[in-house]
Amino acid sequence: MAASSLHLLPLVAALLLAIPSRAHAEHASTADLKELTAITQSLMDALANGKKEVWDAALADDAVVIDEFGRTQQRQEAVDGITGLPPGLSGEIKLLNPKAQTYGDAAVFTADADEYETVFGQKLHILYRMTNTFVRQDGRWKLAAMHTVTVPTTPPALDVAGLKLDDYPGVYRYAPERAFTVASDGKGLSFTTRPGRPATRLLPLARDVFMDDGVEKNLFLFRRDASGRVVELIERRKFNDLSLKREK
């Protein structure tokens, strides 16, 4: 077991003790949901204004925070990381669709975190989804674990000059019975993974570089041979590449 995993053992033990055996989830009371939402919103507000004391008061002693990049922080590291936004940056995060279930003295809280940020005059909009685990200690809810992911959203459209859509349509195969079929309607590209399945749009980012407009928003990289003909498709998914060879 890795050393980082050993740090999680006290937290796991505390959570197991907080949840009665054969516990059944119950919808959180209106008061509990309101309190959990308020705590989480205050944590989001503190990211911008740099109020460490908010995080220090809200986190349990063995709290673990996993951010949208997959980085894991223990309690003190998370608190120390609250420094506020630097000059030139501003923004706010508002919670949407908060929900909670309780398991005795533990609660699981989920919400969307809708962020609007301004970076030296440029406007950014990011949507996160979080799952927070709280434990009730001395009559107060304390955050034991926070896990946040970035929700893939359709990026702004780009006008790619000189894009030749006719270069790409074809069948790209990665196994005897598995292939992607890329098609063009004259205005844009789309692909299907199997006959009869709905087509997914491919959004151009640059020459030979596209992003799928499905749930995952993977990159599609078309590769050419020495003559300039497209001969391969690389689907870059979850930081890994799947190679698909174009059929003659």
UniProtKB/TrEMBL annotation:
InterPro entries: DUF4440, NTF2-like_dom_sf. Keywords: Signal. Residues 1-25 form the signal peptide. The keyword tRNA-binding does not apply. Residues 37-143 form the DUF4440 domain. This is DUF4440 domain-containing protein. It comes from Luteimonas gilva. The lineage of its organism: Bacteria, Pseudomonadati, Pseudomonadota, Gammaproteobacteria, Lysobacterales.
